[in-house]
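User: Here's a chain of 387 residues. Predict its fold as tokens.
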Amino acid sequence: MTGSSLATPSDISQKLSLGKIGRITQSQYAIAIGVFFGIAVLSFLGRIFIRLFTRRRLFLDDAFLSFAFATLLVGTVLGYLRAYTIYTELAAMEGDITAILVIGSNLSAHEQDFGYNIAFIGLLWTTVFAVKWCYLAFFHPLLVGMSRWFIYYYRFTIGLSLVSWVLSSFVAPIVPCPYTGMKAVLSNSTMLAMIWLPPILDALTDLMIISIPIRLLYKVQVRTLTKIGLGCFLCLSIFMCACSIIRTAGTWYHGFLDYPWQVFWLHLEGCIGVTMGSITVYRSTLIGSNEVSTAFRKYLTRIRDAVLGSSSDASAPPGEEIRTKTRRFGLPSIPQATITGVRTWFGMSKKEPNASEGSGMTSFGSDDIDYHALLKSPKAAADPRRR
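Assistant: Prediction complete.
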């Protein structure tokens, strides 16, 4: 059999029994990533639908999340086409003679596969950090009125995430190229650094991003349960941190670097990151501010009426119509006092004086931010009694 035929995915799978290699087998990899990628697609499309039909525009955090989704899409396609090479490399490191012969019989094809792997890993890391930038852009309007040291902390988080992205996407996958064999991996300090630094920086930046909404909610004058609810939606990146910790915990398998395990959890982190980043706008639309949730319900009502051909609210009294809209989809709005308390803490109550133009909101039209409706620029004169 020729070297080119040995390099085909089907032949490699038959000769090496790739379905039984590693802690995560190739079939398990394909099924799990397929499920989570499908969830990510649905949640992302739902977010875009909500943005376009309730706000009529997209924002900076949407742009970052769209970029993350695009890289995840390309990376997933590339992963399904080239996942077998990851398991071939693991089999070769474990000393499988067939794997060594497959790689050695066609080195040029293996070099090409290695190039695809570098691109694949770079795309997955770009997805992960693009989701982080989505969160950072999402939190930017909330920084109004915060202390200077906290602004510096926010900027340092952005800088560290950029450095971590460059290191994880471009430096770590390429630096190991001159070294071969498990002896080099175990003894070379550069190799060890490239193995451990990306997941450590990934978890560190996740924790720093999680700390931002926790600090923002610390002094908000709302009920504890409301804080917990807001924090759950604002700290969804904790799931990405969990994936990073699990990925790091399974670095070694039978004394070897478990490359499939690393790639699987990195891929899964990208899918979960896109899903969690998309979910952040769902709360404001479904149970968030009165304006956004009511507008979304009105749109769904128009769709229902168009399908059924009639509207049951046409003859209802005004008061009854309001109550009907509230319970139609079982999506009650947050009490106004809760929103008022949050607005007051940020110094942006609707009845307070207009915020200064240099308050950091210039990049985000406050009237257009759905989840940040609690931060809307005031339009009326101040009312001292609200303080």
